Amino acid sequence: MDITQTFYDSLASQYDKLFQDWQTATREQAAILNRLFNEYGFDQTARILDCACGIGTQAIGLAALGYDVTCSDISEAELAEARARAKENGVKVRLERADFRFLSDVFAERFDVVIAMDNALPHMLTNDALTAAIRSLVAQTRPNGVVVASIRDYDRLLEEKPPYSPPYIHKTEKGRRVSFQTWDWNDENYRLIQYIVDDEEALQISKFECEYRAVRREELTNLLLSNGCREVAWKFPEETGFYQPVVVARKQ
Hints:
four-stranded antiparallel β-sheet
């Protein structure tokens, strides 16, 4: 089991604590993606593959809007959490375990839209691994379909290589919850430690470790264009309302 799978298996039961209100975030992010899909000519008749679905943050909201959503993830624990949350929200999604570098091993069909949100692609720690992931996502997309992904603004972050991210402080009905990350840089790779401090009925501190590679937008753009996409556009938070830069690539 690699560090990424271990990270998400361990974090799955507490992932929603990273949000002030996970249910609200699900609806808001689905609305943002829906507007983006509409811009590229897709409506609720489109078939969606969320290949880094986590606990279903985007997928469940999109299913609630009427989309046909298939979900995959490398983490069994997150898939189990997503399955339970889909049931609680009264939506139907297909859930499969898959490494997004090898989607064709699991899926025979292609999709109108393939998404990989929340900084999933930078888990690929080498150019070869990222190339394999991009080829896989594009291959699972129908001709004229789109690949949609979000990553941190690494072009900016690499200028300073900050040692931590600003904390999120959430007031809850029972107290306060604080989440933050420390970043230990090694060239363009960094080890991330996610802390969640839950100060409600009893103080609880949780710690989860993972690794990322800071992927510049130009690198990702070039990989998409050289692996079957004919146009690539970057959308920024001030335009979309999403908290990270989003790339949209149209397949040939």
